[in-house]
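This week, look over our next protein:
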Amino acid sequence: MSKRIGYFLAVILLLIGAGLRLLELPTLPPGFSNAEIDELLITETMRTGSVRVFYNLRGEGHEGLYPAVLATSTTLTGGGLVGYRIVSVAAGLIALALIYALGQRLFGTAAALSAVALASVSFFPVLLSRGVTRETLLPFYISGTLLALARALPIYGVQESREPRTTTFAALAVLLGLGFYLHPISLVFSLAMMVFIAYVLITRQPISRRALSSLWFAVVVMIVLATPYVIASFSTPDLAGAGRLFYDSDSPRQMGLIESLTRGLGGVFLSGDTDPLFNLPGRPMIDVVSGLLLLIGLVTAVRYWRQPRCALLLISVIFLLPVAVFARRSPNFLAFSALIPVLALLYGLGVVTLYHSIQRRSRIFVVLAVAGITLFNMVWTADNLFNQWRDHPQVKAAYNARLGELAHHIDVTSADVSTVVCDPAVGVIDPPTTLNDTQLMFLMMHRQNAPIRAINCELSLVLPNGGEYMQLIQPNPRGTLDISPFLQHWYDTGLPESPDLPDGAIPIEMVAVLHNRIGAFTTTAPLSFAPESPGGEEVTAPPVRMGANLTFLGYDQTVNEAYHPGDIVPVITYWRIDGLLPPDLQIFVHILSDPTVIAVQWDNITVIPAQLQPRDVVIQVAYMQLPYQIPEGSYRISVGAYSETDDNRIQIYDGDSPRGTRLFLGQITVTG
């Protein structure tokens, strides 16, 4: 087969591989798994400038190279389900190109095409390229390093006419050196590459002095690059990679070595990984026929082990395979990530071996068989990925599918539909240290600047554009339990849930209801200006215009009632946004024993002022607990707003005349 035809077919295979990896990328996988979220948290930590060799995540070390790549990439592309995954897709496609180049150099065009065919359409490599995990870079790292080494050293046992370029040795040094900061497997793989170099020297392969000098220089550069990693490993041994080679290092081994070996190898050809994160539970990594061809390639490599090109693959298998098969949860496909290029090349070698071992007239059947296997695997993978795997209950649970669906829905619709998102962290003085469902959903959104209003639904409600059609997003599946009982009727009188909306998206339209409620305030919610204001304590009716583009619309009649010491007094106020608000706006509600003495104080706002738009109506609930030692008597309630930065209260107006900085709503009575 000519190289030109080989390149043409390789491009077709790469396009097929790209389609399987890119199709429905925003929704497949349906969200982020907990392990992926950990990677993203490290990435965001690095984005703040905290750069380390090892990151401590709940007592386990994580290398920093992959988060650094993510942080750099997402600065340009944006985050979310697409932005974070595009690095993995690109790495997977580049790995396919490197596998082709490596296979062509080692065993010829036919073997290279066969290797790429297997790697481009097999289920696990496709799914790995959609994940957000450091293992997604391993096929790129392994194939790139093997290619650099194969171009730097004489792999055919004869001295080549052209000396290897200096860039080849530089690439080899950089890949080997940076690999330490990617994954613990680099400890084993670098040792394997040193063994291969020793093999080339011991077997006296024809290598020029210039190439030998460049090779030693590459080894020195690798050592220099790896020095910070070694120092960090000695200074923080609990986080170092050596203890994490066999995955799940913090869990006890639950099976013996023989059982691990049997299950690990059996998972490749017979019964696969049961973890839904990286496999359709039980599906083998490679079909039986491809497995037989792979074994033929392995036997061929063993038979011709004296040839450097076969020795390169054998040494890689000898060092990488134990890490995969002796993983503590075996079979563990994630542990096989580094072996993907090697297994694909052995498959390609097996195809070529079978092709040349039969009569010339029958070789066409080998070609047709390989084409049929590729087509079968492509259809098998597409059906498993886009039908069975995506709808598997374990997959939805493992990838937080509900949050992913809501994130994608907001990305698609928020530009056209007013969107309000329940976030229990808004307005909380001491937010929890772990991410809640809403924050996880925001992490999955690609459009980080989407025009949404985040609110604490337990204490507030925003009705955009005067109550026009909106969608309320409740990421927490138990979100309805967090709604204030004083706000529940607004949700109950909303629109019925639509089957076109994902679970957790509630349609609401309140123009008429809100208009009637605000209109009633003119007679049901009397106000008075502060006694210290110009003109004195004059009674007025809402709405009342304030400074900073804010208007007080009124309040619900929960005041003018009797309470006991220790009771909670709910004060529900309505505010309209008339323009850009100060980002540090705060609302205050005071229970006063006299006009100047505060008995109970509430200063907060459970919406994000910078997200509010003109004509938005904010309903704010303030829960104010009376002291247990509060004296009996009558207490007045005042409200207002201020800027938190300078504590300057916002002016209140009667027409164009200033009338102080607070309004009086009424009074409550405290009885024994």
